[in-house]
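Recall the central idea of this unit: under ordinary conditions, the amino acid sequence of a chain determines the structure it adopts. In this exercise we apply that idea directly, starting from the sequence alone.
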Amino acid sequence: MTPSRLLLSGRLSEPVARALAARLPDVSLRARVDPAPADLDWADSYAAFGWPSTDHAVSFDWVHSMGAGVDAFIDHAGQIGVLTRTLGAMPERMGAFVLALVLGRAHHLREYALSQDVREWRPLPPEPLPRRAAILGTGVVASGVARALTGQGIAVTGVNRSGRTSPHFSAVVPWGRLEDALRDCSLVVAALPASSSTYRIIGEDVLGQLRSAHLVNVGRGSTLDLAALGSALASGTVVHADLDVFDHEPLDNGSWLWAHPAVRVTPHVAAVTAVEDAVDAIASTWADLRASRLPATLVTRPG
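Accordingly, the structure predicted from this sequence is:
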């Protein structure tokens, strides 16, 4: 299979198309923030952050996610020949982001910002870093987080469905042994994808096992039960929550999360796709498909 008509959609479509024009001279490219039905009919391949918003019947030989997440495409698997994704430097960026949150809390950076607002000179002793952390999810991006934390001497236990080992984790346990991962754990990082099996999986059963923990969610908003989080913050099982992802984005102005003193909201920026990441991933994947090689970016394929 050699895709020859690639439709790029969404916020990065135009800069990615400009860069790809020199890299893929044999491919016809169209960049559309919001593709029309005629664009969808023209294309044999599609690259974007999500499935096109249309009732128009479409299918593609190849679909490439410009982000690391592919949950927006999985429900359309029957309309996709090959599904690939962008990773690039995102595991490293995600690791740096989570580590920045952990270090910022240990060194009271939020408190110092508040002190500056009122011109108050109030030195605080730094808190020790967590000795143990649990990461829910052990994929490539989660491994980037594990690498950043273990570099600071933090023992990191990963949790996945099978218990299969993964690079950069001190240990990996299956979900059925979650209690082992959370025992004496003061930092929990959620890096789970969105699916029917992960919907609200971080609820009372999980949060109730914590003791004065710092919770970070950089996976998907649908995995976290916000009502259970509110209860955990009230009871003290969670003492601070850094939330980068939400069910509906942007986060609603009326959400209680904005004003809660123990919650920090960031606008889905833990691992933003850079233009060069998307360009390199699309160009290398196209070359693999043309040569009938298994792409390194592969998520699903026919059969």
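The chain has a mean pLDDT of 96.
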